[in-house]
Amino acid sequence: MNNFTEVELLWLEKRIENRIRFGHSVEERILDRRRRVLSFAPGSIFAFVRWTSNDFGTAISRIDILRAVVPGQRCSTVPYVKPGGDILLRLSGWPKVERVLQLIDAVEALDIDPADAAPDYWHHVHNRMSVNENPRPYTKARHQAWLQRQRTMR
C-alpha cells in the first residue's frame, strides 16, 4: 500500500469523461487506452471534473476540489478517488461547474497555480455558489497573505 491518493481517470467518447483540471500528480499508471490512475501526495490539492451523458444529453456534470489525505486521516469518499479526500469544494450541475472552471481560469490568469491557492478560497467559492452569490475573485494580495501565513506556520 502506498501513501498516495489515487484518482482513476476514464474517457469513453461521448459518454464519460473523468479528468483532472489542475493539480500535480507524483505518479501515473496507464491501465488501458481509456483508463489511467494518477497519484497525489498527501496535502496536495487538485480539481477532479466528472461528466457523464446518455442518449438524451448530459446526465452529470461535477467538480470536486480535493486535498489528498495522509494515510489514516479521516476523509470523504468520492467516486474514482481512493481512499477519498478532504473536500474543499463540491458542486454539480453544468452552470455551477462552468462558473468554477471560469474562476480557475481567473486564478491562472494571475500567474498563480490553482493548486497553490489558499484552500480557504475554494471553501469560500463553495459557500457563495451554494446560495447563488458571486464569489469574490482570488487576488494576488490574498495569495501573498496565504503564502505569508504558510511561512509563519512552519
UniProtKB/TrEMBL annotation:
Pfam entry (one): DUF2840
Domain of life: Bacteria
Record-given protein name: DUF2840 domain-containing protein
